[in-house]
């Protein structure tokens, strides 16, 4: 009896596989939800906040462009195009796309006729190779085309940057502050270039994670990231110097030297400046003058370090209602004045949080570089995008608010950013 029952049990299908007449049915397929890796789960909220906020700002920007309808009247290279999104690939974006398409063709500096603003002809070697190189590579792989590849890289890099900002700020001030900091980076003045054919998003992605690696004493990774930053923008000098200073202090202190060793900090110090030095040297050799890159910036683009003389000139003119200064654009310049006036408070609040040395050195060097250089004053917000540690104190303060209040804040800021962070710099100035 027991054997018969055993055979019957073995031959009978499970209840959920038996049909009404005793026949077998196939078990329905089981679909499992895609699981987010454990290490990525903390980044869901900050990236969602960043992405939604950016989309709102971009939508307002698109609406303003179509409503004003001025971009149709401009040259495609200088802020125009057939569609509103074409504006995102103009100005500096045009140069990056030229490099991605044609590469570099460095020639000796070509003097221009007297009487103009520029004394030498502009050359694409002023634009560093990492970003356009990635554009070309992605275009070849995906078939998106150069413009689409540039936008794709910038958007993806902006999310990596937001994640890096979250990682740094959450380490110092908590998860809530880190999430808010990622959202704030989406609405700061100048944020319009984060999803354009500009290299800012890629640079901030590298810089944020480089600083995070230094904070965690991952010196090899920090050195490699600083090296890459040097191939992306000349302002990487601030990051390179901060990494080097942090490494020197680590080596100078006996307890940190014993804890972290010597090889890692020394490697970071050596590797960090190589990208920047290699490119600037290559430009100099290719153009027959080792100082060619700096001469080109000064005489071909009117950008050079003047110890703050230009900034003071602009502030003085705006204070008395004059516009007798280079690169005068009234609306962007007024916003830039407010940013400059806010900087001392933001710096003081940041220092009260006692952030690590690498963040302090990097932020202060970035600010000195921006305010001490003659360049388009109305783009001060854009030039300060890499100074993300300034968001530390505001994010921590906003973290004390409840989410309903934060929702109102970010909704308002996102809508407004479509104007002040996007439209103003692309249509009322030169980004």
UniProtKB/TrEMBL annotation:
UniProt-recorded name of the protein: Glycosyltransferase family 39 protein
Cellular component terms, GO, for this chain's entry? membrane
Subcellular localization:
Endoplasmic reticulum membrane
Q: Which GO terms describe its biological process?
A: GPI anchor biosynthetic process
From the UniProt record, give the pathway where this protein acts: Glycolipid biosynthesis; glycosylphosphatidylinositol-anchor biosynthesis
Feature: compositional bias, Polar residues: 1-11
Give the transmembrane ranges.
47-65, 141-159, 165-188, 235-252, 264-285, 334-351, 358-377, 406-426
Major localization listed first in the record, in broad terms: endoplasmic reticulum
This protein's UniProt keywords: Endoplasmic reticulum, Glycosyltransferase, GPI-anchor biosynthesis, Membrane, Transferase, Transmembrane, Transmembrane helix
- InterPro entries annotated for this entry? PIG-V/Gpi18 (IPR007315)
Query: Is Transmembrane helix included in the keywords of this UniProt record?
Result: yes
What's an example of a GO molecular-function annotation for this chain?
GPI mannosyltransferase activity
Q: Where is this region: Disordered?
A: 1-29
Q: Which organism is it from?
A: Streptomyces antibioticus
Membrane topology (UniProt) = Multi-pass membrane protein
Highest taxon of source: Bacteria
């Amino acid at each position: 009896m027991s054997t018969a029952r055993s055979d019957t049990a073995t031959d009978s299908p499970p209840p959920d596989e038996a049909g009404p007449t005793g026949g077998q049915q196939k078990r329905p397929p089981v679909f499992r939800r895609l699981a987010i890796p454990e290490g990525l789960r903390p980044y869901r909220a900050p990236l969602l906040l960043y992405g939604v906020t950016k989309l709102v700002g971009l939508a307002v920007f698109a609406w303003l462009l179509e409503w004003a309808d001025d971009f149709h009247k401009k040259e495609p290279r200088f802020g125009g195009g057939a569609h509103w999104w074409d504006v995102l690939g103009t100005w500096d974006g045009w140069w990056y796309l030229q490099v991605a398409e044609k590469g570099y063709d460095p020639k000796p500096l070509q003097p221009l006729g007297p009487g103009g603003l520029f004394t030498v002809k502009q050359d694409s070697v002023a634009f560093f190779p990492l970003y356009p190189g990635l554009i070309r590579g992605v275009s070849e792989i995906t078939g998106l085309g150069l413009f689409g590849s540039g936008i794709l890289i910038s958007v993806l890099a902006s999310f990596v940057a937001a994640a890096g900002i979250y990682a740094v700020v959450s380490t110092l001030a908590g998860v809530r502050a880190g999430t808010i900091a990622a959202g704030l980076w989406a609405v700061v003045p100048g944020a319009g270039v984060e999803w354009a054919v500009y290299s800012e998003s890629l640079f901030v992605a590298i810089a944020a994670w480089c600083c995070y690696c230094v904070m965690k004493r991952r010196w090899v990774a920090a050195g490699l990231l600083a090296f890459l930053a040097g191939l992306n923008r000349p302002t990487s000098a601030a990051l390179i110097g901060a990494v080097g200073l942090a490494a020197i202090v680590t080596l100078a202190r006996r307890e940190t030297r014993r804890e972290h060793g010597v090889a890692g900090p020394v490697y970071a110090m050596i590797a960090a400046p190589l990208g920047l030095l290699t490119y600037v040297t290559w430009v100099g050799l290719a153009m027959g003058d080792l100082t060619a890159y700096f001469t080109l910036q000064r005489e071909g683009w009117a950008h050079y370090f003047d110890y703050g003389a230009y900034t003071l000139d602009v502030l003085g003119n705006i204070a008395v209602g004059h516009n007798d200064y280079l690169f005068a654009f009234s609306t962007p310049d007024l916003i830039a004045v407010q940013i400059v006036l806010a900087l001392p408070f933001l710096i003081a609040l940041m220092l009260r949080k006692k952030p690590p040395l690498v963040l302090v050195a990097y932020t202060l060097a970035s600010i000195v570089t921006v305010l001490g250089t003659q360049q388009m004053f109305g783009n001060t917000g854009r030039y300060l995008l890499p100074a993300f540690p300034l968001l530390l104190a505001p994010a921590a303060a906003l973290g004390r608010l409840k989410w309903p209040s934060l929702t109102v804040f970010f909704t308002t800021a996102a809508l407004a950013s479509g104007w002040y962070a996007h439209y103003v710099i692309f249509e009322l100035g030169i980004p």
